[in-house]
Amino acid sequence: MNSINLVDEKGNRIGSIEKLEAHRTGELHEAFSVFVFNKNKELLLQKRNVNKYHSGGLWSNTCCSHPEFNESIEYAIHRRLKEEVGFDCELKLAYSFIYKVNLENNLIENELDYVYIGQYNGNIYPNKQEVSECKWIKLDELERDIKQNPNSYTEWFKIILNNKNIIDYVD
Domain ranges in the chain? Predict the structure, then answer.
């Protein structure tokens, strides 16, 4: 696995750590979550491949990952969007926040997560090693499903949707 950026609470990069080790120890590190909407204001969800080392088989936002050590977030968001769902689009930073949650397999998410928003209306080409399926969904339908099936969604995705009205960031 790749090394990722350790950060302090202000977002300053302070070192590197192997990605799985960061999730074992719970050290604060950089991450990003990309939300892509279509012209109908539907959000593109991805279902994480069941073989991911955490949160496999769960629905999540369009793309989520970590910049590699010393990689700019701006480069990483576009690189991973293409790698995970097979397209790229203009993205803008909505906000950032820190969260910490315990996951399965004794892993810990302790991340400074940068949330990016974009719009796209073309074809999707999911990488089956990363994503088992994708779907477009209206936010009100998504909110109902999360209430009925909370264990079907990633923790960070639920936190973002609970704490911010993400649609406010869509043009």
Answer: 3-169
Whole-angstrom distance, CA of residue 59 vs CA of residue 47: 4
Statement: 3-169 belongs to CATH 3.40.50.2300: no
Pairing of strands 29-37, 108-119: parallel
- Please report the DSSP string for 48-79 in residue order: EPTTSSSSTT-EE-SEEE-PBTT--HHHHHHH
Q: Pick the catalytic residue: 64, 109, 130, 155?
A: 64
pTM across the whole model = 0.94
Q: Which two tokens stand for residue 76?
A: 């990483």
Q: What is the pLDDT along the chain (171 residues), one digit of tens a residue?
A: 589 999 999 999 999 999 999 999 999 999 999 999 999 999 999 999 888 878 889 999 999 999 999 999 999 999 999 999 999 999 999 999 999 999 888 899 999 999 999 999 999 999 999 999 999 999 999 999 999 999 999 999 999 998 767 767 666
Q: Is 111 a catalytic residue?
A: yes
Q: How many CA atoms lie within 13 A of 110 on its CB side?
A: 19
| Active-site annotation holder among 30, 68, 84, 111 | 111
